[in-house]
Amino acid sequence: MQKLALFFSGTGGNALNLIQACREERVAAEPVLAVCSNARALGIQRLRAEGLSVRVVPRKDFVADDAFSEVCLEAAEAAGVSVICLCGWLKKLVVPGPWEGRILNIHPGLLPEFGGAGMYGHHVHAAVLAAGVQESGCTVHLVDNHYDHGRHLAEARVPVLPGDTPETLQKRVYDEEMRLYPQALAAYLERLSSNDRQ
Predict the structure, then answer these.
(1) What is the separation, in whole angstroms, between the first and last Cα of the chain?
(2) Which residues contact residue 178 at a Cβ distance below 8 angstroms, ignoring those fewer than 6 apart?
(3) Which terminus of the chain has fewer Cβ atoms in its 10 Å neighbourhood, N or C?
(4) How far apart are CA 142 and CA 11, in angstroms?
(5) Which of 2.10.109.10, 3.30.70.100, 3.40.50.170, 3.80.30.20 would CATH assign to domain 2-108+140-153+180-197?
(6) Contact (CB, 8 A) for 59 and 79
(7) DSSP string covering 76-103, please?
(8) Residue of 107, 122, 123, 149 marked catalytic
(9) Residues 6+ apart with CB under 8 A from 91
(10) Taking the model in full, what pTM does it have?
(11) What are the pLDDT digits (tens) for 116-127?
(12) Is 107 among the residues known to form the active site?
């Protein structure tokens, strides 16, 4: 069974969702570590309350992205982790060769239109409304060294409704995130296991 690390920066909602999916055996993996980039994040205590080891690595303690990323990834390696899931991770992660294709992210918008540097959380939903499009959604993708750029694994779409605010749209998208991320992770892990068996 693959060992997971969950990287987060905020409340940890997506991380808690994946923990639950693993416990219910909807995802064939074992979360063994969480890494948090923000020492004041609400998710730290929430994940520790679930019995998960949480390593806090404040981004502000590092001058450069690569040094910060190296410490985070070394923590995952030391825990025997083979797959990392970004769960509301708001910092640039430099992905070295051995981790290519092993890090997943869920983005609260449809990519590539509503991704890139600075496009996270409320900013995504505000941009969707400003663009006047009829649909939004969320995208699960592999992480590479460009923001929101890696290969797409799955997406879910929701309608943009008359009178929507960033907050109301966010709730609709978040509900889909809770459904989509475990499904996409389970399918990814099944493909990974099949490749390993070949």
Answers:
(1) 16
(2) 13, 14, 17
(3) C
(4) 22
(5) 3.40.50.170
(6) no
(7) HHHTT--EEEESS--S-----GGGTTSE
(8) 107
(9) 9, 37, 59, 65, 68
(10) 0.95
(11) 988 999 999 999
(12) yes
